[in-house]
């Protein structure tokens, strides 16, 4: 059928790169976006494999796809479920087009259901990097690969029955993780071949494109610098640009690009002190921008931010939406409220500067930001996906920014880039490596690294979760005397593989450890949707016997068993006995910000003094409102008044997925000890902890 098609119409370029085809008829693969966090990563990977792409919403009709003369279709993941009461519509005729199809996660579920199989939400969910077994013989998708593969899984729905026309070709424990159609070129994978945490994902995509879809690889990426410069010149014309510079990588590269495109006289660079910056940040930022010939104006606005508020959409109990003013930033608790207030405060401030420039006759004026692809996808911007869920509203994609964008007044030359691509571009612009390789620092800064709460979050299942955690920590002993914990044991067994159970058994037989639920919530990403849920802490007096590898392995199992836990940390020091049932009331007030700023400074100074900044990608230092080690008999007499600090050294390439840094590998153990000791010198702190959570199910930041 495809042989008779006309030449393709390329009406919608998926990225700002321009194609330079070697052949007259360009090979084109469509990505049907169901609202994935990784839709643009699929797009990037396919292009890197020299095949051009086009992104359509999943709802696109088969007829429209037909007219694009496609070599293949890839159906993405989604935060939605195929079993939703009104699932995202797709045109069933896409399966009759005769074009090869690869379904990823939600796309895999769509294939299973389309052919009459069953997908359901069982006890198991998997979020993170896991080992799967793949059928590599007589199967083109996994050609030239080993049977055992490390892949990224993030799903709550799983395949229950496979229809006769499909054949299972991959397993994660007892779960089916890949299928192919017995006669047609249709494949589905539960895992995500597009992300870095699927180690051989590129090979799978290559097999799909070249072996299965018959692509030859005629597409080449052209210079992105040239197309960015052209975009800036076209958009700004004779106008002027107000560029918001944080001193981070993205805004530095974007401002350098804008200066190169328009000349420095047409750019006013502004760095805003919102009161949540790191220690000595302003001086460092101004100095490093000066090295690039960019003179940044500093606006001191910490008081304005601290007392800022905004109007937000809220949802009633019956689901209807109403608009209301948020609390002031210095009293706020909810992380999304924080992010909206900060984002809107940035824009309000910028708008008054735009007016000032306007009054000086510099017009039209554009507001420039170093917005990247992940900022837009995590904020669920309609610019990148129709169906994506909001994971967290990045400050540079707040409602007021969206309003300005609609008016065509925002200039974001990097909005199609991932962090590693920005770094490459920065180097090609001759920006020094010390600036290009800086750790990112989020615009809302320390504000989203302070978990604010007035009260402990104790839902009615709090003590049951603690009992299950206790059963996990004493698994071997519970197996010997199961009578009082039968229901917990069977739940653990339902959610884990036999290998997982053997691990729990050996670990609890060889050492004593505790797992304690914390009455605080943090943000995560599971199955491409947002989670806002509990954190748990592992601790032990047998620290020397408990390897970091085993701590990480245990941490990965907890969210698999208890879906209301999305983050797991290690508690340095002696074991934590007893439950933690209260919090130290915490808001974004000056003293509390100062405490975190000092702890952050101490931790980063130790890391830098050992020359280790380059061995990890970022290290958020987070303040949590937990005062450990109090005698729970005397709690009324000794109220919670201290807080604790969590280190979150993180390793990633594009920040879409990543893993916690492995102590002993990425950070020497003695450096870690030094960091902990330095942080403990800061007054008002109870304990230091270490985040063991990959992304997913955690995110890099805690809010
Ligand atoms: N303190 C600030 N002053 C002015 N603009 C800011 C500030 N913080 C953030 N921004 C704006 O928000 C954008 C997004 O911030 P983001 O942290 O993602 O990028 P960055 O700071 O440039 O780079 P990095 O990811 O390395 O921190 C920035 O590019 C910049 O335009
Ligand atoms: O400028 C920013 N404004 C924001 O609102 C924001 N939120 C997260 N980040 C940074 O984005 C990267 C991915 O973070 P998460 O895994 O926590 O989503 C990490 O590098 C985060 O530091 C932000 N940067
Ligand atoms: N990543 C995905 O596509 C997940 C699909 C679905 N939301 C699930 O959790 O199973
Ligand atoms: Mg930043």
Notes on the protein architecture:
- The protein contains 20 helices and 24 strands.
- The protein has about 700 residues and is of the alpha/beta class.
- It has 3 domains: about 1-210, Class I glutamine amidotransferase (GATase) domain (Rossmann fold), CATH 3.40.50.880; about 225-445, 3-Layer(aba) Sandwich (Rossmann fold); about 460-690, GMP Synthetase, Chain A, domain 3.
- It has a 9-stranded mixed beta sheet with strand order 2-1-3-4-9-8-7-5-6, sandwiched between helices. A 6-stranded mixed beta sheet has the order 17-18-19-24-21-20.
- A hairpin with a 7-residue loop joins β22 (about 650) and β23 (about 660).
- α5 packs across α6 and α19 runs antiparallel to α20.
- Residues about 1-25 have low confidence and may be disordered.
- The structure holds adenosine-5'-triphosphate, xanthosine-5'-monophosphate, glutamine (GLN) and magnesium ion.
- Its EC number is 6.3.5.2.
- Pathway: Purine metabolism; GMP biosynthesis; GMP from XMP (L-Gln route): step 1/1.
């Amino acid at each position: 059928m495809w042989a008779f098609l006309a030449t393709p119409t390329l009406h919608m370029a998926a990225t700002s790169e321009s194609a330079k085809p070697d052949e007259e008829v360009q090979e084109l693969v469509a990505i049907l976006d169901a609202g994935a966090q990784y839709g643009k990563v699929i797009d990037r990977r396919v292009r890197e494999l020299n095949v051009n792409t086009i992104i359509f919403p999943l709802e696109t009709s088969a007829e429209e796809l037909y007219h694009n003369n496609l070599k293949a279709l890839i159906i993405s993941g989604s935060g939605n479920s195929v079993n939703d009461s009104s699932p995202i519509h797709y045109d069933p005729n896409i399966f009759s087009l005769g074009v090869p199809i690869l379904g990823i996660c939600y796309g895999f579920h769509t294939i299973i259901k389309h052919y009459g199989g069953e997908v359901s939400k069982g006890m198991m969910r998997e979020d993170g990097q896991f080992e799967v077994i793949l059928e590599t013989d007589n199967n083109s998708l996994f050609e030239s690969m080993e049977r055992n593969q490390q892949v990224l899984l993030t799903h709550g729905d799983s395949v229950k029955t496979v229809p006769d026309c499909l054949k299972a070709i991959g397993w994660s424990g007892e779960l089916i993780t890949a299928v192919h159609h017995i006669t047609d070129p249709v494949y589905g994978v539960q895992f995500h071949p597009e992300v870095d945490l699927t180690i051989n994902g590129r090979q799978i995509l290559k097999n799909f494109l070249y072996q299965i879809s018959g692509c030859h690889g005629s597409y080449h990426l052209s210079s992105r610098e040239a197309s960015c410069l052209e975009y800036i010149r076209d958009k700004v014309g004779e106008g002027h640009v107000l560029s918001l510079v944080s001193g981070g990588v993205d805004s530095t590269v974007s401002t350098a690009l804008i200066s190169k495109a328009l000349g420095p006289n047409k750019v006013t660079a502004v760095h805003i002190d919102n009161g949540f910056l790191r220690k000595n940040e302003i001086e460092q930022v101004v100095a490093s921008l000066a090295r690039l010939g960019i003179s940044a104006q500093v606006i001191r606005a910490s008081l304005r931010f601290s007392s800022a508020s905004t109007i937000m959409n809220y949802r009633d109990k019956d689901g209807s939406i109403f608009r209301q003013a948020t609390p002031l930033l210095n009293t706020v608790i909810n992380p999304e409220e924080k992010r909206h207030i900060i984002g809107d405060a940035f824009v309000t401030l910028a708008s008054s500067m735009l007016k000032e420039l306007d009054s000086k006759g510099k017009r039209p004026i554009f507001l420039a930001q170093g917005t990247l692809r992940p900022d837009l996808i995590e904020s669920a911007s309609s610019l990148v996906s129709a169906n994506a869920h909001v994971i967290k509203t990045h400050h540079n994609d707040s409602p007021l920014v969206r309003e300005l964008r609609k008016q065509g007044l925002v200039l974001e030359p990097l909005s199609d880039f991932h962090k590693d691509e920005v770094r490459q571009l920065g180097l090609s612009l001759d920006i020094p490596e010390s600036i290009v390789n800086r750790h990112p620092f989020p615009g809302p800064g320390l504000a989203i690294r302070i978990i604010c709460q007035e009260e402990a979050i104790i839902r009615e299942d709090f003590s049951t979760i603690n009992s299950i955690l206790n059963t996990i920590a004493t698994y071997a002993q519970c197996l010997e005397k199961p009578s009082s914990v039968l229901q917990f044991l069977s739940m653990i067994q339902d959610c884990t593989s036999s290998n997982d159970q053997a691990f729990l058994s050996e670990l609890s037989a060889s050492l004593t450890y505790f797992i304690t639920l914390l009455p605080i919530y943090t943000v995560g990403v599971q199955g491409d949707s947002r989670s806002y849920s509990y954190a748990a802490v592992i601790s032990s007096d047998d620290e020397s016997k408990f390897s970091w590898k085993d701590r990480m392995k245990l941490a990965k199992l907890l969210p698999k068993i208890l879906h209301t836990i999305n983050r797991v940390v290690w508690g340095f020091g002696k074991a934590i006995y007893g439950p933690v049932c209260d919090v130290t009331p915490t808001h974004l007030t000056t003293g509390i910000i100062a405490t975190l700023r000092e702890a952050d400074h101490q931790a980063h100074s130790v890391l830098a003094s050992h020359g280790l900044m380059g061995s990890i990608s970022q290290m958020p230092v987070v303040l949590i409102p937990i005062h450990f080690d109090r005698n729970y008999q005397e709690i009324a007499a000794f109220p919670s008044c201290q807080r604790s600090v969590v280190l979150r050294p993180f390793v990633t390439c594009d920040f879409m997925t990543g893993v916690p840094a492995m102590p002993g590998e990425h950070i020497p153990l003695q450096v870690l000890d030094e960091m902990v000791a330095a942080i403990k010198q800061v007054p008002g702190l109870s304990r230091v902890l270490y985040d063991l959570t990959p992304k997913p199910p955690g995110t890099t930041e805690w809010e």
